[in-house]
TrEMBL record:
Pfam families: DUF6401
Organism: Planosporangium flavigriseum
Protein name: Uncharacterized protein
Taxonomic path: Bacteria, Bacillati, Actinomycetota, Actinomycetes, Micromonosporales
InterPro entries registered for this protein in UniProt: DUF6401 (IPR045647)
Length: 134
């Protein structure tokens, strides 16, 4: 028999399990959302947004990804604030790592051929800037 720990008086729901991380997984108490967003910005966002300013089709793709991030948060009743954005970005990075994806150096990337992960992380940064969290 397996005993599952309780959290806030409830056991985790495991009737249906997937390999997907929730888009708004809670950050650990030790993780400051601003630091997480800054790390994502340094690793991907700054170069992606600079490239998007030069490549209109890339800007359109980043805008579409930003809309998808907003929609994902809204579908869970979450506002576009620092904690949900940082959690979302962390979940994207964790999913990418689980799939074996290693981000190439963003400065060396051909942004006209950016991956889904690059676009989604750049969109998280664009939203963080738009809402004054970066």
């Amino acid at each position: 028999m397996v005993f599952l720990p309780t959290y806030l008086g409830r056991r985790p729901y495991i009737e249906v399990m997937t390999s997907e991380l929730p888009a708004a997984a809670l950050l650990t108490a030790a993780t400051e959302p601003g630091a997480t967003l800054k790390t994502i910005m340094l690793r991907t966002g700054a170069d992606g947004l600079a490239a998007a300013a030069q490549i209109p089709s890339l800007m359109a793709a980043v805008d579409q990804h930003a809309a998808a991030v907003r929609e994902s948060l809204a579908s869970r009743g979450l506002p576009v604030t620092a904690v949900p954005l940082a959690s979302y970005g962390s979940a994207v990075l964790a999913a990418a790592a689980r799939m074996g994806w290693q981000p190439p150096d963003a400065a060396d990337l051909d942004w006209s051929r950016a991956t889904w992960f690059h676009l989604r992380l750049t969109a998280v940064c664009a939203l963080a800037i738009a809402y004054d969290y970066l």
